[in-house]
Each structure stands twice: as C-alpha cells, then as structure tokens.
Amino acid sequence: MRVFSDAFMIIKDNYVEKISAKELVYGAMKGMIGALDNYSQFMEPDVAEIVKSDTEGEFGGLGIRITTKDGYVTVVTPLKDTPAYRLGIMPGDQIVKIEGESAKGISLRDAVKKLRGPPKTKVNITIAREDEDKLLEFTVIRDTIVPQTVYKKMLDDNIGYVRLVEFTEDAPEKLKEAIRELKKENTEGGFILDLRNNPGGLLKSAVEIANIFIDKGELIVYTEGRRNDQNRKFYAREDATLPDAPLVVLINKGSASASEIVAGSIKDLARGLIIGETSFGKGSVQSIIDLSDGASLRLTTAKYYTPSGVVIHNNGVEPNILVEISKETRIKLAKQREIVYNRREDEKENEDERIIDPQIQRAHDILIAR
C-alpha cells in the first residue's frame, strides 16, 4: 500500500497533464480487477443503466451474450430471432474490432456501450472465427431485443422437444407450462431438453429447472469460496414434475453457467443422457458489491461444483455421448430455424430442402431405442 500511495502521489503531481484523484483511483480499480479473471468487473456508476436494461429483458442491440476471453470480447451465444442470429454470428466468435477500432483489451462495459444503441441504427464489427483464415466483417442493424424463453414442439414417436433459451426469473414456470402442454399430446417416448447456446442466467432458476427432472432431496449443485458464507448447497425442494420420463439433454460450447448446472446435475445423478459437445465452462459465482460513491464491483467469490464434485469453471460439462456439428452445418441449421420461426401460417415448408440436426436426431434415436 505504501508503494501504491507513493506512485499515486508521483503521478498526480508530476504527470504532464492534470489528472484528478478520481481518475487515478478508478484506473487503479480497473487494473486490480484486470489481474483477476474474465468475469470480475469494476463498474462505474453509469454502468447501472446497462445492468438495469439487462434485468428488464428489453434493450436495443445486436442480440448476443458476451464475455471476455484471451483479451477479446467473445460471443457466448446469439439469441434467437435477433439481428446477430440472422447474420450467422456464432458462439466462440471473437469481436476484434468495433467500428474499425481495435477491441483488444476492451472492458465488457465499454463493449456493451459501443454495441448497444437505438433500434434501426448500424454498427460495424469485425470477427475472428476459429478455423477461418480471414477476419469476417458484419454490419449489424440494431433492433429491440426481447429474449424469448421457451420453444416447444412434438417430434415423431411421441417425443416432446423443449428448447430453453435463457434462465430468466420466469423460465421455470414457462418450462413447466410447455411440458404440461406437450404431455397432453402423449409424450411416452420421452423428452429432449435443448440447452444449446443457452448462456445461463439466474442460479435460482437453474435449481428450480433441475428440480423439474430431479426429485426432492437430491443435491443439484454446490458452491465453494474463501468465505464460509460462499459455501452453499442447493437441493431439489419439490417432487419432480418429470421424475421418470426418459430424458436427453443437448449441450454445446454455447451452453454456459446455469445451463451447465442443470446438465451437470442430470449427468451426475444419472437422471438422463447428455448429448452434444463440451459446454462453455463458466462455472463461477459473481457477487455485486456496492461502493460508497455508487460504483460497484462484480467479483468472483465462489465456484460451482456438480453433485459428484466436478468443478465446472474452465472445464465445462462433458457429454455422455459426443456428437459434433461442423461449422457449415451449424450455419445452415441456424438459417433454417430462422426461416421456420418467421414463416407465415400459409407457407409450406419444403421438406426436401431441409437438413437434419444431427444432435437432435441422435437424441431421438436413443430415446426410441431404449
């Protein structure tokens, strides 16, 4: 602290331009947080507006969930029926430039401020994608983003399919309602829960959704940190909605946080099979700690562990059955789903032009072969 104090006074008194104590302190705070992990963050008071828009679930932007990784803003997942999704932006894409300016080392806060804006305005981004030799240029027209939570449909052989987009506060009840509606159509073939490209959300929602499949009293997830109050265990508190129904859960590298909690608990407790690709590996707890001037710290204070003690953070959840999808197939499937979601009632789908989702097909085949 003496060294810090000495440096503070030397800079304040000798730097070529006058600089305020607040600027130096905020800069020091950002530097300290930057020495930690990708998920801790120093938030100046004006970031509260951004955080508030996230919790309200509606804002003008591209329709992507982002984090920082290897010094770059990285796409965790594009949200369905959004500008980013329609353009084919994919999980794992690194945003290397925004409006032609380098985005290397940019904070999440600054990235969000640059990417968001009024609907119908444009933002130019440059993306580096794994296995692509050259950078990709996108011009994205912002839109009002209102994330949907649940999609459902019946598959052949009496199999119910539910895709969960995000773990919002109302997600558990919406998922239960979707399951109730599907069960009216006879789901004796089982269920497929699709958590692919789901960036996570609320821990409370993750526990409640796991409880739909996992019966009362079972351990779903636990956290461990340096402080005793960060060491917590979360159990299923109610009788499961679907305690015995055959179940397959789909995950990929865009499945993060709460998605990994649900998939990890179902895998560890042998409640169902996990199919797809190893998940993102975001298994840490961030606590929001307010500071005296209105700024805040988003600080990693604990890590998530699956019931068997496997740490999710940086490792992800490995599927029971690995089914990979090529980059070309992912792009075609994304475009195909977008067409389906936006098709008018009177339009007929040309089955000959459709391609089959290999992960859904594998899940379907396993359920009918049980």
SSE arrangement:
Blueprint: H1 2-14, H2 21-34, E1 41-43, H3 47-56, E2 59-61, E3 64-69, E4 72-78, H4 83-87, E5 94-98, E6 101-102, H5 108-115, E7 122-128, E8 136-141, E9 143-145, E10 150-155, E11 159-164, H6 171-183, E12 190-194, H7 203-213, E13 219-225, E14 232-235, E15 247-251, H8 258-268, E16 273-276, E17 284-290, E18 296-305, E19 321-322, H9 327-342, H10 358-369
Parallel strand pairs: 11-12, 12-15, 15-16, 16-19
Antiparallel strand pairs: 1-18, 2-9, 3-4, 4-5, 5-6, 5-7, 7-8, 10-11, 13-14, 13-18, 17-18
Tell me what you see in this structure.
It is a single chain. With 370 residues, this protein is of the alpha+beta class. It has three domains: 12-41; 57-145, Pdz3 Domain (Roll), CATH 2.30.42; 150-369, 2-enoyl-CoA Hydratase, Chain A, domain 1 (Alpha-Beta Complex), CATH 3.90.226. Helix content is 31%, strand content 26%. It contains ten helices and 19 strands. It has helices spanning 2-14, 21-34, 47-56, 83-87, 108-115, 171-183, 203-213, 258-268, 327-342, 358-369; strands at 41-43, 59-61, 64-69, 72-78, 94-98, 101-102, 122-128, 136-141, 143-145, 150-155, 159-164, 190-194, 219-225, 232-235, 247-251, 273-276, 284-290, 296-305, 321-322. The strands form four sheets. Strands 3, 4, 5, 6, 7 and 8 form a six-stranded antiparallel β-sheet that branches. It has a six-stranded mixed β-sheet with strand order 10-11-12-15-16-19, with helices on both faces. α6 packs parallel to α7 and α7 (203-213) packs parallel to α8 (258-268). The model is unreliable at 52-58 and 339-349 (pLDDT under 50).
